[in-house]
Amino acid sequence: MRSGEAPISVVIADDERVVRDGLRAILETQDDITVAGVAADGDHALRLCGTLRPDVLLLDVRMPGHDGLWVLGELARTGELGGNGVHAVMLTTFDLDEYVDEALTLGANGFLLKTSSYEELLTAVRAAAGGDGALSPGVARRVIGGYVAHRRARRVDAADLARLRELTPREQDVLRLVGQGLSNGEIAAELVVSEHTVKTHVSRILTKLGLRSRGQAAAFSRRVAH
């Protein structure tokens, strides 16, 4: 949980040492980011989140023992995911696309390729720390393209449609753009409103839909897209 202008606190969880070391080396070059701890498996990652209370968890989807999805589930179950708790960004490769929807539904803020650029990593960490979406542009376009098509082919649940009708037309517009992977700034430009207004809409959307994170809102939006 952030305090004032304190640096963004990050925990890195990945079973590959070269990945952990590489991410840590990049993050520690920044004055506004500090690496609080590293973990090589899900159990250790969960313990670190409990003791260190980081702002952001960079979490590998697949690890030995308990994996990243298990960690997300445990954090969600205890109320420590999203909101004023930790914001999770999944570390993934595209052979793991089948896990994207489940992770977003559990409350992950977004996804980052392990091969992402220096700039994409830093952008994702800073966005997640502020509760914003953390899908780097390349990841967003490739992942969302496949999942929108998949969800459109499925029957939309009547309960989801009822929840959607609780939103105002403008909130539905914002939700649709969140589902497309746009940041608050990009949504503001698209709708010709201030970024503050977009943040207010996103907060109201989460409250009305009973969701914990922007990632869950994106997953909901893709589920009801037609």
CATH fold node name of the largest domain: Rossmann fold
- Read across the widest sheet, the strand sequence of neighbours is 2-1-3-4-5
Mean pLDDT: 85
Could you give me the name of the CATH homologous superfamily of the largest domain?
Answer: Response regulator
What share of the residues does DSSP label as strand, in percent? 5-15%
Structural class: alpha/beta
Largest sheet, strands/sense/barrel:
5 strands, parallel
Number of strands: 5
Which residues sit in consecutive blocks of at least 5 with pLDDT less than 50?
none
Could you give the distance between the termini? 37 Å
Structure in words:
Residues 9-129 form the Response regulatory domain. The modification 4-aspartylphosphate is found at residue 60. With 226 residues, this protein is α/β, with parallel strands linked by helices. The protein folds into 2 domains: 8-146, Response regulator (Rossmann fold), CATH 3.40.50.2300; 155-224, Winged helix-like DNA-binding domain superfamily/Winged helix DNA-binding domain (Arc Repressor Mutant, subunit A). The chain is 53% helix and 12% strand. The chain has 11 helices and 5 strands. The chain has helices spanning 17-27, 42-52, 68-77, 100-106, 118-129, 137-152, 158-164, 169-179, 184-191, 195-209, 214-224, and strands at 8-13, 33-39, 56-60, 87-92, 110-113. The protein has a 5-stranded parallel beta sheet, sandwiched between helices. Helix 4 (100-106) crosses helix 11 and helix 8 packs across helix 11 (214-224). It is globular and about 45 Å long. The mean pLDDT is 85.
